[in-house]
Amino acid sequence: MESVLYNQLPQQTAKLVNIQPQKPKEADAFVKAFLKRSLTRKSEEDIEDILTRKAVVLEHLHKRRRRERKTRGKGLSAKQRREMRLFEIKPEHQRYEMFLPLHELWKQYIRDLCNGLKPEAQPQMIQTKLLKADLHGALVTVTKSKCPSYVGLTGIIVQEMKHVFKIITSEDRLKVIPKLNNVFSMEIDGFISYIFGSKIQFRASERSAKKFKAKGTIDL
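^ that's the sequence the OP posted. Answer follows.
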């Protein structure tokens, strides 16, 4: 092993790499000094043991970097949203004319959803699609209710929640109408549809994935 490690370089190779050849003793001293500087924690006996029994790896080993897990920010809770009043409509924005463009967009959305609302369209198909559709912007009228004061109220739905509709009337008044015990009607291109509020007590996102029965018990 020593004869290979401390073997003198040929003169041709030494000239090619521009290195002055060293004698075996000098080479031995250089290697030991180099290992002593590189392996400061090891004693001379350990260095001798490495030289005689084991191969020496002089390359630098890269440590693996640990990937930091990215934590997703938590959304606001329902209580925090209420405290921040995110869903409250300011009095200066409670104007009927401001929501007329939204109503026009909603009508176009329903026409596209129902393939143009053709005269030969089946009412049951339209009713099923309306039950799952987004109702923000729909013009609705309370036709039946257990509370007489709600009957006849008409307005554009500006907010839909799980249990209530918030509508803006033509008199620029914001009304909160519960879905329970109320029947709503909406008219578009000659089609009039009636929706029982008690059957759609879901959030808009939940209602879009809900399967409604074709026939069921109807009770205010």
